[in-house]
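Hi everyone,

Forwarding the result from last night's run.
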Amino acid sequence: MTTTTHAVVAPVTTGNRSFLLGRVQPALSGLMDGSLSTLAPIFAVVLATHHPLTAFFTGAATALGAGVSMAFSEGLSDTGDLTGRGKPVLRGAITGGGTFVGGIFHTLPFLIPGYGAAIIAAIAVVATELLTLAWLRHKFFQTSFARSFLAVTVGGAIIASLSAALGVLAAS
């Protein structure tokens, strides 16, 4: 006997849509950008140098730079008048903050002095970030969790492969 359950999706109201477009989407965009775009420099540096603290400073600088860049990018993308996405300064701050947060979490393990332990901890943090991103997309945008996880994981795998190749190449 097969039982089928259907999720109840709340209707999109004007207030809900405004919250999604003005708060959730910029935050998720920032978190995804920070979590994925900062992988390459951090892992390339640690694989090339085998110095976790150097990777930490690389990651911190990348997270800060990416956060500021994304804040300006989102804040200057539109006034919010035509799109209904809300105030540009607030959207920029949310996106920039999300980008910084997404980039700094997998940077923190490189404060661990041991190379192997730092790599393992960072990989665990990245896996947690990918699961969290997939869950957030599933929760707020009614996307399939599996499809969301696959999308962010493929992006992360491409970036990790590129950064690993660059790190290994630089080390040789």
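The chain has a mean pLDDT of 86.

Cheers,
N.
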